[in-house]
Amino acid sequence: MLKMQNVGKVYRTDLIETHALRDFSLEVTAGEFVAVTGPSGSGKTTFLNVAGLLETFDSGQYLLDGSDVSRLSDDARSRLRNEKIGFIFQSFNLIPDLNIYDNVDVPLRYRRLKASDRHERISSALELVGLASRVKHMPSQLSGGQQQRVAIARAIAGDPSFLLADEPTGNLDSLMARQVMDLLEQINEMGTTIVLVTHDPELARRAHRNVHVVDGQISDLKVYETRPARASTLGGASA
Amino acid sequence: MYAYYVRLALKSFGRNRGLTALMLGAIALGIAVCIMTMTVYHAMSGNPIWWKNDRLYAVTMDNWDPTRPERPQYPDLPPAQLTYKDGIYLLGSNIPERKVLMYARQSVLTGGAAQRKPLPVSTRVTTSDFFSMFDVPFLYGGGWDSSGDQNALPVIVLSKEQNEKLFGGINSVGRTIRWDDHEFRVVGVLDAWSPTPRFYDLNNGAFSTPDDVYIPFGWTRTLEQYPNGGDTSCWRPEKLDTFADFLGSDCVWTQMWVELPNRASRERMQGLMDGYWAEQRKAGRFPRPRDNRLTNVGQWLKDQGVVQNDNRLLVGIAFAFLTVCLLNTVGILLAKFLNAAPIAGVRRALGASRRQIFIQHIIEVGVLAAAGALLGLGLGALGLWGVHALYVTNSQVDTVADITGGYQQLTHFDPISVFWAVVLAVVSALAAGLYPAWRIGRVAPAVYLKSQ
Question: Distance (Å, rounded) from C-alpha B383 to C-alpha B280?
Fold first, then answer.
């Protein structure tokens, strides 16, 4: 479902060129839970931004659900992002002046769903993360863990094919981090593909496989057998 | 989706109340100043009968002193009025579709249902076409027929205000009142009518109030009274022992307008005037070079100095001020929008396209513009009220029109001004918001998602 082949991404200024991704190749199949680890500046977030269609790339090929995304217009990329991808960020990125309900509503608005359909999806997503009773609360009235659960509800409300999570537990204490990871595992078990970027080897071990990135390339790949294998075949990776 | 964007705009205003107030104030102030100057300019330069601009013509002939023009400030213009005898001659022509010869008198009215004390009024002594030619609206009755142009028909038309004073606003057609020492029958009551500027007779100021009552021109000879409500100018020593001497003199005191429907009729009318001029010149009149004019209303207002350069300058300054206000607004909008770039980044990550982010923000500007227009209208009204208060409190109410040129009449909104104010506010604020909205649509979302 996500296939990158020899993808390259270079950031240029007047003085320097930084190769954030070099010949980056990775395939993630439906239902997988893949952890991406690596030191700071290794290109993990750039990979996530390219995968999430937030950034373009300079070379290589990226197929999302079989379609080549490199030549899509901004409108088409945005539509694809809205329908197929859910994001979870380290700093939650909830919109501060919208209440919980309206925050979860944001991606659904851009999909132009009917109000009744949106309401149903928002209610189920908030139910799943255990915050159905907090719909009128503002983000500032919630704890960090609760805010991240709202962000997860927002990410899954549109029923995306896969979730991209960038250090989703980075701002949480260990108890809340565990709760969030449990929730992500639960969502993955329901069939959503997850790509998780993290520094934490313990968290990475909860994925099906761990892709280690150094200097914009995949340097190591581990497949964990401790979790039951998903119905779908695990994808391979090459660097 | 647009309703959603409006809701987001309102939330955004709440998030940055200070900046919102600044922008709103800047837009509203700019708009208010423009409204004030445009309202004054519109009233002072507007053609109140524009729909007949290519049909109505002021008739002038230069009969003046060969050594100096009638008005030194307008050396290239003939006198704005005609002599009685020239007016009467031209009135006899069948070329114009309609023709009006007239002058103003001050008189006294008595009678009426309210049995008021004698009421000083401004009277227009005019030929019968006045009402149809200037599209004067009637509330009750109508004018008189053309027999009144030659004969002293005892009929009178009242303005709406005079009918209110004399008869409490009821249909007074058929009632009798005394005008000076003569009994008149009311044949018509005008509806509200106040052409601004009062183009047809500028003697008492372009913005003076319309006349109170109207009587047939045929009364001129019968009354044998010199005109006392306008301007009478004479340039050479003449024998003026009797009223007949006055009527035959070279003094100018009547205003003449004709309605000429097409170019051919204008050319024929011009030919008539030039022919008459040549004939009179042979008889020793018209010592100055030939200058017989048919001037349409728009040109008439310019020629007579109703539209002055300082008014145009004022409008220019007002628009420059609006531009400065809008440039400030651009800066504030840019700061506000870029301050909210992380939120735009989140929306982009959640599926909003650049176009949608642009539309969301341009709608926010539109809502701001609408609020700015409302506030600007309020401030503009306050400013105009201030102009009104300034002039009225500085002078006697009864004579304010004379002293101020009728400024108090300008200090009210007309629907056209309101319409243009709203259009101006929305268009100018949208123009101011285009760049900031475009910029926020171009933010790279990834930059903000990690750092928010």
Answer: 54
Four-CA torsion B40, B42, B48, B51, nearest 10 degrees: -170
Encode pLDDT of B302-355 as tens digits: 888 886 666 677 778 888 888 888 888 888 888 888 888 889 999 999 999 999
The angle, 0 to 180 degrees and rounded to 10, between the axes of the packed helices A144-157 and A174-189 is: 20
- Candidates B12, B342, B446; nearest CB to A49: B446
Is B447 touching A (CB cutoff 8 A)? no
Structure tokens, B154 = 């005892």
Say what the ipTM of the complex is: 0.89
Residue to mutate among A81, A92, A152, A171, with most B CBs inside 10 A, is A81
pLDDT at B390: 67
Of A78, A89, A91, the CB nearest to B351: A78
Please enumerate in sequence order all residues whose Cβ is within 8 A of that of B250, keeping only pairs 6 or more positions apart, or say none. Answer: B63, B83, B234, B235, B236, B238, B285
Q: B203 and B211 in contact (C-beta within 8 Å)?
A: no
CB < 8 Å to B446, chain A: 45, 49, 54-55
A17 vs B140, residue with greater confidence? B140
Q: What is the DSSP string of B167-203?
A: HTTS--TT-EEEETTEEEEEEEEE-S---SS-TT--T
CB B302 within 8 A of CB B405: no
Q: How far is A234 from chain B (nearest CA, A)?
A: 27
**Res B307: pLDDT:** 67
DSSP output for B256-275: EEEE--SHHHHHHHHHHHHH
B408 exposure class (CB count in 10 Å sphere: 0-12, 13-18, 19+): buried
Q: Average pLDDT over chain B, rounded to whole?
A: 86
Q: Is B397 on the interface with A (CB under 8 A)?
A: no
Instruction: Give the global pTM.
Output: 0.65
CB < 8 Å to A90, chain B: 450
Residues of A in contact with B353 (CB under 8 A): 74-75, 77-79
pLDDT value of residue B205? 81
Contact map slice: B 11-30 vs A, CB within 8 A: 11-12, 14-15
Cross-chain Cβ contact B449/A54 below 8 Å: yes
Contacts of B129 (CB under 8 A, 6+ apart): B98, B99, B100, B146, B259
The identity of residue A149, as a single letter, is R
Residue A50, SS3 per DSSP: helix
Chain-chain contact of A107 with B350 (C-beta, under 8 angstroms): yes
